[in-house]
Amino acid sequence: MPSYDSTRGRFRLAEQHLAVLGHRIEGEEVPAELAGPDRELRETGLTDEAGDFSILLAPLVSTLRAPAVVLHVEALGEHGTLHHGVTIGDGYVYSHESWPGSEESEYVRLEPNMLVWALARMVNLQGEEYEEVATPVVETTMAVLDAGLDTLDGLPGLSAEDGLARIAEALRGAGLTRKPQAATLAKLVAGMRSSWRMTAAWKGHDEGKPAMQVRGFAVWDCGPLGYWHRELPSEPILPGQVDDTTPLKLVRVDPKQVWQLITDLLPTEEEFAPEPVGAARARRDALPGANDRREAPPGPPRRAGRGRQMPG
Q: Which of 197, 196, 174 is nearest to 186 (CA)?
């Protein structure tokens, strides 16, 4: 059921509710299969009997309808895959976050200077103390990773020590013969808390011609073993691009480096396609720190998938 929280200006909306709003904006008849979500929007006061939407929805609808930048977070964890993100529009910035088992996402308006903080919170970026590992870099192939993940799926009932030994044996059998890397990757596979990828898309240019631009990166969150940047295969990954022979490269990074990766994801003013001065100024004002976005703040405060569904 959609809802609105007046104390914080936040909405809970499912994809079907957004689809209804899309049809209403275009002056189209709402399809029969969306009759339920259409009724729910009326019952909560977000649209009226004529189908006009509440003034409360206007900034969110205008942002989603004509985004300047779309940032998407795909997070894979114990409860499956969740989708979060941020949309930057003409003067407004909105975040959306999903919840395990719920069709609805929470949409909240952001202050532009809080954009990177919001993205960092979506992936639970923490400044923890981390354990030492045998090597800070692991290089192998996707076939080796699949062998480790397949072994992990069959470990219920084994002790942690026996489970690690089984995974390491599977990694070596698949071709990862370097002991430090096999030992480290086995710990990462067994201890992965979540994996996630973050991408940005915007209307940019290619050799002076308008063209959609996309870039991204992926990280494994391995809890006490720290954060690992998946440098290979690099994001964005296209369908059919990954097979058993595809190189896999994981590099350990600290929270401040992850923060910098998030900051560097945002396009600079020069990366946008040319447009009228007024529109460019409005978009610039919606982006955080026009002159200092490339410098990472100190970072978050310190405190005492499987198979071809690519982890992070």
A: 174
